[in-house]
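Dig into what follows:
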Amino acid sequence: MHELAITEAIIDLINRQSREKGFSKVLGISLRVGEYSGIIPECLREFFPIAAKGGIAQEAELEIISLPAAFRCLGCGYQGEVDRKEASCPRCKSREIRMVSGREFYVESLKVE
């Protein structure tokens, strides 16, 4: 249920930007959500209208772009997706892998008037 608080924080960020940049309406919001960010995109979509109600983002279209996780193999240098069941490098089968992306969560862009 932390997605409601996250959505409210996004609205707060938008309101601050509105005051700083001088826009009065948000038409679109693009978010990037990593596969391992711990954030459930469906919940963001559900809570967004509640958090935005009555504000400058009330009519905004919410776009959520999912970012897949990528790993780097410390053995052979491979970087990319791995088989989750095996938890090993698809090239050399090493289990010495580190996540290099997939935890991200950020507002990529706003479309404003």
